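User: Fold both of these, please.

Assistant: Here is the first one.
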Amino acid sequence: MKRNNTFNPLREPLRSHSSLELQNEHTTGPFSFLNPTRAHYRHSELSKLNSSPSSLSSTSSTSSSTPADATTTTTVDGAAGNGQNETYRKGKEDEEDEDQPASDIQYQWRSRDNRKGRHALIVTPAPFDDANAPYLAPHKTSTLRATAQGIKRMLTQYPYWDVSWLVAIIFTLGSVVWVINAFFVWLPLVDPATEFPTEIGVGGGWTAFIGATIFEIGSILLMLEAVNENRAGCFGWALERVLEGDNEEKGEGGKWRVKASVDVCEHHHTNKKNFVGKGDVPSDQKSNATNTTEKPSTEATTSQSTEKTWQWFPSAYDLRTHYFHELGFLACLAQLFGASIFWISGFTALPAINTALIDRSQGALDGAYWAPQIIGGTGFIVSGILFMLETQKKWYLPAPTVLGWHIGLWNLIGAFGFTLCGALGPAYGNTGAQYEASLATFWGSWAFLIGSVIQWYECLDTHPVEETKGEKTMAAATPKSSS
């Protein structure tokens, strides 16, 4: 079997979640010689508990004081995944307005989502009036309303302990600095009347150094994020059994509601006590996992207990057997290489150093200033391509519905701009070359900024929902607005 169609048993995502069943036909990646980048799972509890409703009847009945229209909900812990330790609550929630009937639900694991602490769900909607639809699921998160909520999160949430958020913020700030740099070096060529003394040399030089340094810091954090990904995988959703009317009295039947659950997330992104590495699983969650009658396999238990929760860099064995076959790691490595070489051009852009190089010779300027831009920009190009490919099912099929693909695309455009600037640099004495080089920095900086802002949005959109083809009425397509 090809490498991209199967996981190493010790690296299989969600291997310790006995209730999640891997759908092997959906395990794939863009290249046969690299690790899979996506896989689908089904939750076995949906079929198991539906086939044994009597196990719920003794505890799910309501008291006489319960309102007639109340709903009894059985919660199955998504992280423990065994469904034996159940809690109950009564009463309807505002969040139910966000539900839609669904005929099928699958969990989609993607390598990029795993690094970023995200949990993707694939929902097949059912007709809104279909009483036999077995599931209640959230609506897709690509609507205008969901996008507006995502923008609101960007303005109101500041998870400074989350390395993925820090990476996005740092690259956004770095891109803003480069946009300012581009105005310093390009605007005087467009309108010489706007130029002020030392604008290009001092303003441009210092912003280039600051921007390159910020990019280097962001690239280091990006690499730390890549080598400290959640190796065991994280489900991140909770299943609730909803009983209404006659079903409530009998304690059987009903529907399954799938809800996003930060409380059971095992990614390090939710743990405020560490930067990367160890997840934050609540004590009650650990209790649920302990009290279940179905025990995880010895292999999974041993793997979890011996895995490191933090590492600066993988071992030679892990590099050889796993990371050098991991598209996301290779993309981060290319980014770090490019940023490190590119930083040299930022350092030599400092006014005193740059003036000394110009006075020395054109060859010295080309070798210490322009060449690092070309080499570093090439690293950015490779990184952008690999980040795009990581989100694609096939190397030749674009993935425009995936946020990570757009991030890679805009970073690729920005990388071409920075590389073009370096390539035109040796001919900087020519007025046309100087103009085009500065212009390339201008549009390249804006492209990096767009990609960074999308990445900022992505890291806070932790529970994306996609929809496959299915029928819905207009009522389902337009849920009620929350107050």
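And the second sequence with its predicted structure:
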Amino acid sequence: MSTPTHASTSTTSTTAEANEPTSSPLPIRSSPKSQSTASCPHPKPGYPTCKLRIECHDLNHQGAQIFFSSINVPRDFSAAVSTVLSILYKPSQSNSHIPPVRSVTLILRAMEPLAYTTGSELDNDHKELHFSLDYIGGIPAEPTRRQKDEIQGVLVHEMVHCWQWNACGSAPGGLIEGIADFVRLKAGLSPPHWKKEKSQKWDAGYQHTGYFLEWIETLYGEGSVRRVNEALMNKKYDEETFWTGLFGKQVQELWDEYCKTLPEERPLEDTEDKKGQDGKLVEVHEQQKGDTMEKVLE
């Protein structure tokens, strides 16, 4: 902006000078910066992001071929993160209530356990998600989308372990696994063999606890499981006070009420001949889950 020119303040002037037009000061304008600062609202909070990496130890493995033909890695890997965060948290300006995960590396390799998640050698803010190529290679191709949905379901389940709280390592393993399967259930990725069973304990884990948490979410309202997760953030788990503090009842009382909503279970022999291919997968899945629960860390 140029400097404004003002008329002379001298009291002596000629007639010619008096007849010349007198310049006026330019109007003062607010700077664009100050206007935008005053009118723009605070940006809407968003979820944190992290680096996503993938390693495959054997591209010729049948499981690798199924994985890469079923999954769009950049899209579906990112979608697993978004799904988990949107179900477990509401964003804030600081997001200090969300674990500070800096990276997640998906490692595809031949191994006996189905899948497990752990912190990397660098530090616990960098996660490793190990997924069995042997298991992927055994997923039935039928019905349609079975392979894609099962792979995506496992990714979502394991991604929960990257982002959930665990009461400083003191939360029951069954609750940790139940929250992971609740998220998978809410994401619409439950496999066909899952079922609600009243014969199990509340902390049996996986889909058994996942369905129980779904019932709590229905009874006490949207965001109830989010409250369960966030209550595991900064203090040790105490079963006597944990559930009553959230829902006013002991967890066993809640479980008993949930079981009353379930139908009577048929004897095992009535369903044994109806397992089929998915039943075989269930047996492998259940055995591997028991073997790997101890490997799920924070």
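The chain is about 45% helix and 10% strand.
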